[in-house]
């Protein structure tokens, strides 16, 4: 029996379904039926094109400033990856990071990110404040990849940059999943001097009492808490308690996704250290971030 067309479609759909299923974790991508075909085609194309994208220089890093909650001085910047796809335009990391993780390409891509961040740090060294840091996001797949630590060490010695200058942002779930493997790598990064930021705090299942077991220098409170602090008393109480406890444990606390003056005011009241969010700036290309650094402080609206 001659099979025409069907197997190809079936394979393609299985491929897409697989990618989609993997993407459902943190990113909650949802694909609804009316545009299923175009979405399916898009996922298929993105998965296929990802392999060539690094070679063709299609990735770019944007930076979002983190400011001191009291002085509004730019104390740090988070590197956030974008993909300039030749057909689809700018693609969000929420869409392609899960694909990169599923295909293992995240290892190469992640190394490119570290390399670029080190170069950027070097070029901004003369215009940044004392103790300025840049942070970058790392996936679990990178951390458990054999040789990750050696490659990171090599990149830092080549760049000649103080390890303390670069923060690795790691999501809360990695401290709980496959606990031992992650702990070992995270610990060696810290031994070398890198700071670790616990990203998206509050979205996982860890309780406040677990904070003492999470060895990190910075705690980033997830946007979902920040979103409601001005309208929900309970969220404000939780955020205040988290900040108090984190401070007692010697951590610096950063609030993510701050969009309104009201949120900022409440976060200042509960002694939050750092603020990141659209209120101050969206993530911007490197050249624009440099202009922000030259201005030292950001004024709101
Ligand atoms: P994340 O690390 O939690 O990054 C913060 C996300 O929130 C960014 O989305 C940022 O643009 C967005 N954001 C910042 N301020 C605000 C705000 O005030 N309001 C709202 N609504 N959103 C805000 P983005 O750039 O789309 O990144 C999404 C996620 O992709 C990141 O979440 C991170 O987990 C992942 N990601 C980005 N770059 C990398 C990377 O180089 N490597 C890895 N492994 N993951 C990355
Ligand atoms: Ca992050
Ligand atoms: Ca986050």
Task: Give a topology summary.
Layout (H helix, E strand, L loop, with lengths): L5 H22 L8 H18 L5 E10 L5 E12 L3 E3 L1 H11 L2 H19 L8 E5 L2 H4 L4 H12 L6 E6 H5 L2 H14 L2 E7 L16 E4 L1 H4 L6 H16 L3 E4 L5 H9 L4 E2 L8 E2 H10 L6
Parallel strand pairs: 2-4, 4-5, 5-6, 6-7, 7-8, 8-9
Antiparallel strand pairs: 1-2, 1-9, 1-10, 2-3
Bound molecules: ligand C2E and calcium ion (2 copies).
Model description:
With 301 residues, the chain is an alpha/beta fold. Helix content is 48%, strand content 18%. It is built from twelve helices and ten strands. It has helices spanning 6-27, 36-53, 93-103, 106-124, 140-143, 148-159, 172-176, 179-192, 223-226, 233-248, 261-269, 286-295; strands spanning 59-68, 74-85, 89-91, 133-137, 166-171, 195-201, 218-221, 252-255, 274-275, 284-285. An eight-stranded mixed beta barrel has the order 1-2-4-5-6-7-8-9, surrounded by four helices. Strand 1 (59-68) and strand 2 (74-85) form a beta hairpin. Helix 1 crosses helix 3 and helix 4 packs parallel to helix 6 (148-159). The longest helix is centred in the N-terminal third of the chain and has 22 residues, at 6-27. It is globular and about 50 Å long. It starts with 5 loop residues before the first helix and ends in a 6-residue tail after the last helix. The model is unreliable at 1-7, 9-16 and 28-34 (pLDDT under 50). Ligand C2E is lined by residues 64, 80-81, 92-94, 97, 113, 136-139, 169, 199-200, 223, 257-259, 276-278, 283.
